[in-house]
């Protein structure tokens, strides 16, 4: 049973050469988990182990960074949220699951593999994490905001004719502005930001883009 005040740290492992996030995990002791990852071998049989071993063969070591800290069992939804967040950002994660299981090295059942295959083909909806009772730290909000503006924005450099903008706005709703970027509608903003509609609606309602 989870201790109510036990602190759990959510962290990421980054590629030391590209700084791309490759893994999202949780632990109650960052130093212990760092040593555990560092000693992984190919015999572990996971994508994470294979990636770490491939770095080691090049004389490299992953970078570990804490991104959040939660109490009690709230880490389950937090871990799932960050896995979904970085996947939507295009990061090539080596996580085997959608998070919240706390079982490194977990092997999927045949049924689970079929479901994941369907999800990848768009047959099933993607996992939608719950944000109830969650709040980003000021640093988290700043980091997320900085990733959505300027040249890093997926909408940067794109131009639509006035006619197209009006058609989209009429069909999908009223135009909005997020972090200085104009979108013809909420739906269009969610699409350009690579967010699930339910996730976007929650963040927009709670003003979590600022």
Keywords:
single chain; 210 residues; alpha+beta; GIY-YIG endonuclease; three-stranded antiparallel β-sheet; two-stranded antiparallel sheet; 8 helices; 14% strand; elongated
Count of individual domains: 2
Unreliable stretches, pLDDT < 50, 5 or more residues? 102-106, 124-130
Please outline the major beta sheet.
3 strands, antiparallel
Radius of gyration over C-alpha positions, nearest whole angstrom: 19 Å
**CATH superfamily assignment of the largest domain?**
GIY-YIG endonuclease
Helix/strand-derived class?
alpha+beta
The total count of helices amounts to: 8
Strand order of the largest sheet: 2-1-3
Order of helices and strands: EEHHEHHHHEEHH
The end-to-end distance, rounded to whole angstroms, is: 36 Å
Return the average pLDDT rounded to an integer: 76
Short characterization:
With 210 residues, the protein is of the alpha+beta class.
Structure description:
This protein has 210 residues and is an alpha+beta fold. It folds into two domains: 7-120, GIY-YIG endonuclease (3-Layer(aba) Sandwich), CATH 3.40.1440.10; 138-205, no CATH class. 39% of the residues lie in helices and 14% in strands. The chain is built from eight helices and five strands, in the order E-E-H-H-E-H-H-H-H-E-E-H-H. The protein has helices at 30-38, 47-57, 75-88, 110-120, 138-147, 162-172, 186-192, 197-205, and strands at residues 7-14, 21-27, 63-71, 176-178, 181-183. It has a three-stranded antiparallel β-sheet with strand order 2-1-3, sandwiched between helices. Strands 4-5 form a two-stranded antiparallel ribbon. A hairpin with a 6-residue loop joins strand 1 (7-14) and strand 2 (21-27). The protein is elongated and about 60 Å long. Mean pLDDT is 76; it is low at 102-106 and 124-130.
């Amino acid at each position: 049973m989870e201790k109510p005040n036990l602190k759990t740290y959510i962290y990421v492992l980054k590629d030391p050469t590209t700084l791309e996030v490759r893994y999202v995990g949780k632990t109650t002791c960052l130093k212990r988990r760092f040593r555990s990852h560092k000693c992984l071998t190919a015999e572990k049989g996971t994508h994470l182990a294979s990636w770490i071993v491939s770095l080691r063969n090049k004389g490299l070591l992953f970078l570990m960074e804490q991104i959040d800290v939660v109490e009690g069992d709230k880490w389950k939804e937090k871990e799932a949220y960050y896995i979904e967040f970085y996947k939507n950002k295009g990061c090539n994660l080596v996580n085997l699951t959608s998070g919240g299981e706390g079982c490194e090295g977990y092997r999927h059942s045949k049924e689970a593999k079929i479901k994941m295959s369907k999800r990848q083909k768009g047959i099933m909806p993607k996992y939608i994490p719950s944000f109830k009772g969650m709040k980003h730290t000021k640093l988290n909000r700043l980091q997320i905001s900085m990733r959505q503006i300027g040249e890093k924005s997926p909408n940067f450099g794109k131009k639509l004719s006035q006619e197209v903008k009006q058609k989209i706005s009429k069909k999908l709703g009223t135009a909005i502005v997020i972090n200085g970027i104009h979108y013809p509608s909420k739906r269009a903003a969610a699409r350009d930001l690579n967010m699930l509609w339910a996730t976007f609606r929650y963040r927009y309602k709670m003003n979590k883009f600022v």
